[in-house]
Design brief:
By secondary structure, the protein is mainly α. It folds into 2 domains: about 1-55, Orthogonal Bundle (Arc Repressor Mutant, subunit A), CATH 1.10.10; about 60-200. It has 11 helices and no strands. α7 crosses α10 (about 155-180). The two termini are about 35 Å apart.
């Protein structure tokens, strides 16, 4: 994460740096990101960049963390408007993201962000799940879920179900972004997958006999 020096910068300067970083991640994927291009667009020196961030991965991780906070705020509002229906809220998030990234520049940014997550999935799981704020955010969201909708309404079970549902969403959106799938088709595919999660794919109770 950024240093305290970055967080003490004027808001306008932080915004300029973030905007430059987003522009570069829109232009190219993570592996091709140029720190020189970012500092040039942001009007800062290379030395200043390394006072704020350890490296380009540190910068992109911060962008992803900031992005996650915006998504959490969206989920809080929509869980309430959907009366605690977790899966309906996942569908709402799908529609929001699809609409939000219709613009070509936003679409490129989102696709590159998804590719970065896909190629660094273990890194993100470790980064987000090991941090207490992520756990606290998950608990906060689950408290807005209606437990009467679930066979297993315990908090840890609901958090696990939410993880699975959002992984399905992430994969669905990534697939749509690389195959140019239209919104209606992507939405239906996601709804079918969430339906299997909600209803269970097996006719009888299943357990891992090899555990």
């Amino acid at each position: 994460m950024p240093s305290s020096t970055f967080f003490h910068l004027p808001e306008s300067k932080k915004t300029t740096i973030i905007t430059a970083a987003k522009a570069e991640l829109t232009r190219v994927g993570f592996s091709a990101i140029s720190i020189n291009k970012i500092i040039q667009d942001a009007g800062i020196s290379r030395g200043s960049f390394y006072m704020y961030f350890q490296d380009k991965q540190d910068l992109i991780d911060f962008l992803m963390s900031d992005y996650k906070q915006h998504l959490i705020a969206f989920l809080e509002v929509n869980l309430q408007s959907n009366h605690g229906d977790l899966l309906a809220t996942v569908i709402s998030l799908h529609d929001f993201l699809f609409d939000h990234y219709t613009d070509r520049s936003q679409c490129d940014l989102y696709r590159n962000m998804m590719e970065y997550i896909e190629s660094n999935s273990e890194h993100f799981i470790a980064m987000w799940r090991e941090k207490q704020p992520f756990r606290e955010a998950a608990v906060k969201l689950v408290r807005l879920v209606d437990p009467r909708l679930f066979k297993h309404p315990e908090q840890d079970d609901l958090i696990s179900i939410a993880y699975v549902a959002f992984e399905i969403l992430r994969s669905s959106l990534f697939l749509a972004s690389v195959t140019n799938t239209d919104k209606i088709t992507s939405r239906q595919r996601l709804a079918n997958q969430l339906g299997m999660l909600a209803n269970g794919a097996y006719r009888t109770e299943w357990s891992d006999t090899h555990a």
